[in-house]
Structures are given as structure tokens and as C-alpha cells.
Amino acid sequence: MRVLCILVFAFVAALSGAAWAQAFAPGFHALPKGARVALMPSDIELYSISAGGIPEPKADWTEAAQRNFKQALMNKKDSLGISVVEVPGAAVDELTEFNAVETAVARAIVVHYLGPSHLPTKRGNLDWSLGDAAQVAKKATGADYALYTWIRDSYATAERQATIVAIAVLTGVGMQGGVQAGYASLVDLNTGQVLWFNRIQRATGDLREPDKARETLDVLLDKFPAAK
Q1: How far apart are CA 182 and CA 218, in angstroms?
Q2: For residue 226, is it within any domain?
Q3: Could you give the CA distance from residue 95 to residue 110 in angstroms, rounded to a whole number?
Q4: Which of these, 8, 6, 19, lies nearest to 198 by C-alpha position?
Q5: Three-class SS string for the chain?
Q6: Cβ-based neighbours of 131, under 8 Å, separated by 6 or more
Q7: C-alpha Rg value of the chain to the nearest Å
Q8: Does residue 51 contact residue 156 with C-beta atoms inside 8 Å?
Q9: Distance between CA atoms of 31 and 13, rounded to whole angstroms?
Q10: Could you tell me the pLDDT band of residue 70, with boundaries at 50, 70 and 90?
Q11: For residue 130, which of 70, 40, 51 has the smallest C-alpha distance?
Q12: Which pTM value belongs to this model?
């Protein structure tokens, strides 16, 4: 389990750089009026950071965060200017492949578009596709687009905070406590193309409280390409 947590936070580290970074596919600026957008189940996990800096998953925090974020998303749907499609519970298993492909593509975007390792074949463009997996999602939801959200949030324990202070006093070197990292991805289910991508990486935010979960959602969906 610890190895898995460390791998997760290695990806979180790859999100570092600018705190916010948005990108649009070439030629895309906004969704058409009446666009049907499936709100994919959010992939959220919360961790505590031990005194030694090891992330430990917290099931109760994660459950609260998923509940708070979903409620915030449902409350915000009217302001997004879209026709929202909720994913049927019976379709969740069908979307396993789609979710896995989306996550892999998102990681590629973080590393090879927003990160330092640019791919020359992309020519600096947001030019990624989910391929045939998008057709599975379209059939399962009946939507033309899908909005996918992914967040990993961590919080330093009291012992970790004390360690950070002690090391800073003794050495003058600062250490990071918790971090909130995530992304939102809008996909055209007809073509598989990623149309819009936004990431966040910051030392603030808290999904364990409803009002703060709303603030995180507002940041994550800032400048969402709503229908004009």
C-alpha cells in the first residue's frame, strides 16, 4: 500500500510548476449550445502525511470528499451552460476502460504538454485522443461530451507539522506539508479528442468541508468552455 501511495504522489509531483495551467485543443473555444455533457464519477483520494513524510490513505476523508465534491458539482451544473447527463449506476462498470484510458492520456498531457518533456509531433498543441474508448462512454451515457475530474489531496498530521517547524528552525530549510493536485478534462465522445484540460497544484484547499470543496471546484473549472 505504501508503494502505491508513493507512486500516486510521484504523479502529483509531476503536476508541479504553475499552480494553474489551462489548455484548449486547436480551433476549440467553447461548447455548442445544448451540448450534452456526461459528468463522469470523480476520481478522488485523500491522504494524511506522517511525520516521516509518508502518505497514508484515509478512507473516511476520501468518502467525505467524494460526497462534498459531487454535491458541489451538481450545484454548479446550471452555471456551466450545458445539459448535464448523470452517469447511470449500471454503466459504471462499462466505463472502466474509458476511465483508465482517460487517466493515461491525462498523465501524458501533464508530462508532454504542460511539463518539460514536449513531444515534437504535437507541435505545441493540445492534440490527444482517447480513441475508441470514447465510443464506449458515448454509448453508455448518450452524451456527446464527458467531463472527467481527478484530485489527490493530502494533509500534514500534527507530528508532520511539528517536524516541518523543527527542521526549519534548525536548518533554515522549508519542507512541504500537504498538497492539493488535480485536473479536469473535457472529451468529445464523438471523436475521442481532448478539447480542454485544466490542472491545479497548490498547498491550499480542503475537500473535507463542503464550502471548501466548492472553492476547489470553482478553481478547477475556472474558465470552463461553457456554451456561448
Answers
A1: 13
A2: no
A3: 22
A4: 19
A5: CHHHHHHHHHHHHHCCCCCEEEEECCCCCCCCCCCEEEECCCEEEEEEECCCCCEEECHHHHHHHHHHHHHHHHHHHHHHCCEEEECCHHHCHHHHHHHHHHHHHHHHHHHHHHCCCCCHHHCCCCCCECCCHHHHHHHHHCCCEEEEEEEEEEEECHHHHHHHHHHHHHHCCCCCCCCEEEEEEEEECCCCEEEEEEEEEECCCCCCCHHHHHHHHHHHCCCCCCCC
A6: 101, 192
A7: 18
A8: no
A9: 31
A10: very high
A11: 40
A12: 0.81
Q: How confident is the model at residue 53 (pLDDT cuts 50, 70, 90)?
A: low
> Is position 228 within any domain?
no
Could you give the number of structural domains in the chain?
1
Residue 227 lies in a domain: no
Which structural domain range is residue 200 located in? 2-220
Residue for cell digits 536548518? 171
The answer to whether residue 225 is domain-embedded is no
